[in-house]
Design brief:
Largest interface: A-B, 54 and 47 residues
Number of helices of chain C: 17
Structural class of chain C: mainly alpha
Shape of chain C: globular
Order of helices and strands of chain C: HHHHHHHHHHHHHHHHH
Number of strands of chain C: 0
Helix content of chain B: over 70%
Oligomer: heterotrimer
Helix content of chain C: 55-70%
Strand content of chain C: under 5%
Order of helices and strands of chain B: HHH
């Protein structure tokens, strides 16, 4: 009843398979956000003036701060993977822990922004720009939350000594996911906050 | 496992510095009115940043062709759905 | 290695519900998918029979208009999302992909089990939505779906979950086929079923998220009033159709490609000839999957798309015929001068070719702009897609069930009863749906409970046909049950087939193979001096 196959698979093959699995999952994610990007393109071409006027109501400073937060967290994840490859578990746990904290900071800033917008009477149903804004940042926010959970779990496992320089598949692969979340935000910033 | 593959800490810090610099640049550019060029510049900068993240942080640079395929194929389909939809909505 | 292996236990031997609910054996997960999806096939079939019952008379007689709308919505939604999309890939695919490549399991057994239970969660949510059942048609078109009182958000969420399960299964298969092949199993030695499944999995991974997010947006429109599809707020209802068909057109190839894979397995076995044009069939699967992404707009010719988009999508649609015809011609070339025997799997495979050809050849009528305007939303469309989906995919599924029944259960079927069932299915299907081509050509629109009296005769014929079809299917499944209960034990390789799954015991042991086989040849060397050595 347990994984009767997993223990027999060559670890190298298992690592490559898991990595391909994550890349295939990211392919799915690209198209998940892709539908929203398509809607964005369609409506931005249709209503350039509306997009320009509405985007001025967003808080550009907080958007930029959040970008820097996510980029920094991505660096930490990269350093964490680098650390576990050299067998430095403690440093890796610190990196991933800090990443989860930065993720929380990101979500808090997001919370402040959304609250601010609600106070101004801007809701998902207000107009097409804010529909896009809330759906895109909302879906991205859910991904940040999911990423935080995964990274925290991996960090706990690492703390318990489950990984070493010879086995660190979950560390590397959860990192891949986190970078992808960062990557999506890199596009959301100019599309939503920096229209002109 | 792929021990040999990428990523000295030095590279990571250089990439990080570039990402921060590009973020600052793109925000500053957005305050200048370039007309249509605003979008182009913003998306170009975003794409450079995204490539940096993918190539170095996600180690795409040292991956084999199969992984490159997995990374690029969805982008082709993204272009397809955007293009096909615009073919309708822009010319209706 | 044809006899009983020395080691290992049959995969069915372990008893108790826990041994199923927590299993990570791809074979058991495949069997669970099969049972679940077949159950929905019957429920969906009952809705179809209710529709045909109502259409016996021109006036609405038995059900209200609303009930009729609910019935055709549920018939479509259940058949599409709960039966035809998961049945072959997740059911038969799960069982046979690892066996075909000579592996012990899929790449991620745990994920495989998870995707089954996500599927279960999905259909439970779908069932929960029946408190206020859907009446929008299975396509959920806005703006009506954004306004109707039915539980659209609930059903959308259910289908979102089913989509997630489908993505995870596709992802699992892609990685399995890339990484888990037995030594010597090169891409060009893979059975053609695997090529079909590989192309299918790519579509699942790429297209499904789009429909997931579309249903999410629809639910959000109902809950928070987001403006994407709402014209009063500047949204665009046709955008919904773009997103919907960006998924739902490629997904008809998720339905048909695995069935074509089964046909490519069955035809050479029962013709005792090597498959003709192996590479052409293999790569045409990928070509169909790719072209399938380029033609979604042909569902929207009458939705007010731009003229250029109409012309573009119509033009590209005709190209899908090329790789499809490549397959059909290669199957026929395989049959040519073969030593053909007509066991039940072969009967269904030949039926597939015949019915799918009819379905395929009526496609150009709908792909061409001018004729589509006349035929759109008539019974011609209903007949066309039932010929491709039921005459194609479901016949392929039946062929697969009969072909692999001995392997999955370790029992042989009663061949005579199977042939009687086949005759009833073949007759009933054609009486039901061929008539609909005529009804549609005469102009009867689909999705109405009432119709003009001048269509009465055709509708009565279709309804009689549907009853024959139903009896045929009941006989078939009764035969399956009889086979499971008291069929004679099956040998390891009753059809003398060369693919790897037949080189182990029936039913297979939990590990599939006593030892991992080494592959030295392609699996279609029938009638050739050297066969495969396993």
């Amino acid at each position: 009843m347990t994984g009767h196959v997993e223990e027999r698979t060559d670890p190298r093959v298992a690592f490559e398979a898991a990595k391909l699995g994550v890349w295939a999952f990211l392919a799915t994610e690209v198209l998940l956000f892709g539908a929203l990007f398509t809607a964005y393109t369609v409506f931005r071409i249709q209503y350039p003036q509306l997009f320009y006027e509405q985007h001025l109501k967003l808080n550009r400073i907080l958007g930029t701060v959040n970008t820097l937060v996510l980029i920094s967290s991505s660096l930490l994840v990269a350093l964490g993977v680098n650390a576990i490859r050299r067998g430095k578990t403690r440093f890796m746990v610190i990196c991933y822990g800090a990443t989860v904290l930065l993720g929380a900071v990101f979500l808090c800033v997001k919370y402040v922004e959304w609250t601010e917008e609600f106070h101004k009477g801007l809701y998902p149903g207000t107009n097409i720009f804010f529909s896009l804004y809330f759906m895109m940042t909302g879906l991205h926010g859910i991904h940040v939350l999911a990423g935080m959970c995964v990274l925290a779990y991996v960090a706990v496992l690492a703390h318990r000594g489950r990984f070493s320089e010879s086995y660190y598949t979950p560390v590397e692969l959860s990192g891949l996911y986190w970078h992808f979340v960062d990557l999506v935000w890199i596009y959301l910033l100019p599309l939503l906050y920096l229209i002109g | 496992m792929s021990q040999e593959s990428t990523g000295s800490r030095r590279t990571y810090f250089i990439v990080y510095a570039a990402l921060v610099a590009l973020t600052v640049v793109t925000v500053l550019v957005s305050y200048v009115n370039l007309g249509l060029m605003n979008v182009v510049v913003a998306l170009a900068i975003a794409s450079v940043k995204a490539s940096l993240v993918a190539l170095f942080f996600m180690h795409l640079k040292s991956e084999d062709r199969l992984v490159w395929g997995f990374a690029l194929v969805p982008l082709a389909f993204l272009a397809l759905i955007i293009g096909g939809t615009l073919l309708d909505t822009m010319l209706r | 290695m044809n006899g009983e292996p020395e080691t290992g236990r049959g995969y069915l031997e372990e008893r108790g519900w826990r041994s199923w609910a927590y299993t990570m054996d791809h074979k058991r997960i495949g069997v669970m998918y099969l049972c679940t999806t077949i159950a929905f096939f019957f429920i969906g079939g009952i809705f179809a029979l209710l529709l045909r019952l109502e259409l016996l008379s021109p006036q609405a007689k038995y059900f209200s208009d609303h009930a009729y709308n609910v019935f055709f919505t549920l018939h479509g939604a259940m058949m599409i999302f709960l039966f035809i999309i998961p049945a072959i890939p997740s059911g038969l695919g799960n069982f046979f992909i690892p066996m075909h490549i000579g592996a012990r399991d899929v790449a991620f057994p745990r994920l495989n089990l998870a995707s089954y239970w996500i599927f279960v969660a999905g259909f439970l949510v779908v069932i929960a939505s029946l408190v206020s059942p859907m009446d929008t048609g299975w396509t959920f078109y806005t703006p009506y779906s954004a306004k109707t009182g039915a539980a659209v958000a609930t059903l959308s969420f259910g289908i979102f979950l089913i989509g997630m399960s489908s993505i995870l299964t596709g992802l699992n298969f892609i990685v399995t086929i890339h990484m888990m092949r037995a030594p010597g199993m090169t891409w060009h030695r893979m059975p053609l079923f695997l090529w079909g499944m590989y192309a299918t999995s790519i579509i699942q991974v790429i297209a499904t998220p789009v429909v997931g997010v579309t249903f999410l947006l629809l639910a959000m429109e109902r809950i928070f009033g987001v403006a994407f599809f709402d014209p009063s707020k500047g949204g665009d209802p046709v955008l919904f159709q773009h997103f919907f068909w960006f998924y739902s057109h490629p997904v008809v190839y998720v339905m048909i490609l695995p069935a074509m894979g089964i046909i490519s397995e069955v035809i050479p076995v029962f013709s005792r000839k090597p498959i003709f044009g192996y590479k052409a069939i293999a790569y045409s699967s990928l070509a169909i999957a790719f072209l399938g992404f380029l033609v979604w707009g042909h569902h929207m010719f009458t939705s007010g798309m731009s003229p250029l988009a109409n012309a573009f999508f119509s033009f590209l649609t005709f190209f899908v015929a090329v790789p499809t015809a490549v397959k059909v011609f290669n199957w026929i070339a395989t049959l040519y001068k073969g030593s053909i025997t007509f066991e039940a799997p072969m009967l269904y495979a030949l039926t597939f070719i015949f019915l799918f050809a009819v379905g395929g050849l009526t496609g150009p009528f709908l792909g061409a702009l001018a004729t589509d305007v006349q035929l759109h939303d008539t019974y011609f469309v209903v007949a066309h897609f039932h010929y491709t989906m039921m005459g194609g995919t479901v016949m392929g599924f039946f062929a697969g069930l009969h072909y692999w029944f001995p392997k999955m259960t370790g029992k042989m079927l009663n061949e005579k009863v199977a042939r009687i069932a086949w005759a009833l299915v073949f007759l009933g299907f054609n009486v039901t749906f061929f008539t609909m081509f005529i009804t549609g050509f005469e102009g009867m629109p689909r999705r109405y409970a009432e119709y003009l009296p001048r269509y009465h005769v055709e509708n009565v014929i279709s309804s009689i046909g549907s009853a024959i079809l139903a009896v045929g299917i009941l006989v078939m499944f009764w035969n399956f049950l009889q086979g499971i209960r008291k069929g004679p034990p099956a040998p390891g390789n009753p059809w003398r087939a060369l693919t790897l799954e037949w080189q182990t015991s029936s039913p297979p042991i939990t590990e599939n193979f006593p030892e991992i086989p080494v592959v030295t040849d392609w699996p279609y060397g029938y009638g050739e001096p050297k066969g495969r050595t396993a």
